């Protein structure tokens, strides 16, 4: 009898834990989202006309350099490698908010989610930063390869479709920023 009651209580407790865990994106998904978002912002900030030479820098006996080509700097391996050095420091600008469209908590840059309350604690940010570093250790090659070309919805394409650390709910759009009368210019009222 006691064992039966214990198993029932334990089962209910376990179910509640699973429901709670399912309502918050994983740290790995948050780290992936942080990385892809930050990389894309840094790439977009580069002058699209800026180029870099890549290829073999060997000089032939006749003094010629063959095999060099010019590519865009923004998505070059050189630029991506420079970004990766400090990208996880960006966790200090993130918070865990409830996406009211899906009912799931997700890690989002605090500027994007100003209108949403969330966890901005040092503990949460430290856990996200550690997850970010772990994610890079495990997925650096795949991430850099993915970022060498542009994508329409990069977080959804990489974090959900390519490596599968986020569910489709994790990468769903946040609700739009509410507009108040104060946001509308007087001449448009």
Automatic annotation (TrEMBL):
Domain of life according to the entry: Eukaryota
Protein name listed in UniProt: DUF3456 domain-containing protein
Q: Does the keyword Signal apply?
A: yes
Q: Keywords assigned by UniProt?
A: Signal
Residue ranges occupied by any DUF3456 domain in the UniProt entry: 28-166
- Which stretch is the leader sequence? 1-21
Q: Which organism is it from?
A: Caenorhabditis japonica
Pfam family of this protein, just one? DUF3456
The family annotation for this protein states:
Belongs to the canopy family.
Q: Which GO terms describe its cellular component?
A: endoplasmic reticulum
């Amino acid at each position: 009898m006691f064992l039966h009651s214990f198993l029932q209580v334990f089962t209910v407790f376990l179910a509640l834990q699973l429901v709670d865990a399912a309502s918050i994106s994983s740290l790995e998904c948050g780290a992936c989202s942080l990385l892809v978002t930050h990389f894309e912002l840094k790439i977009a900030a580069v002058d699209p006309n800026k180029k870099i030479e890549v290829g073999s820098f060997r000089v032939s006996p006749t003094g010629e350099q063959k095999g060099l080509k010019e590519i865009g700097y923004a998505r070059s391996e050189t630029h991506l490698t420079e970004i990766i050095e400090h990208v996880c420091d960006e966790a200090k600008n993130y918070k865990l908010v409830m996406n009211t469209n899906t009912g799931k908590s997700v890690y989002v840059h605090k500027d994007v989610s100003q209108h949403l309350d969330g966890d901005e604690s040092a503990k949460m940010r430290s856990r996200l930063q550690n997850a970010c570093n772990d994610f890079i250790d495990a997925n650096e090659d795949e991430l850099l390869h993915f970022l060498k070309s542009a994508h329409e919805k990069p977080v959804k394409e990489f974090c959900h479709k390519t490596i599968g650390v986020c569910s489709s709910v994790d990468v769903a759009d946040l609700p739009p920023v509410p507009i108040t009368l104060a946001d509308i210019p007087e001449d448009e009222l």
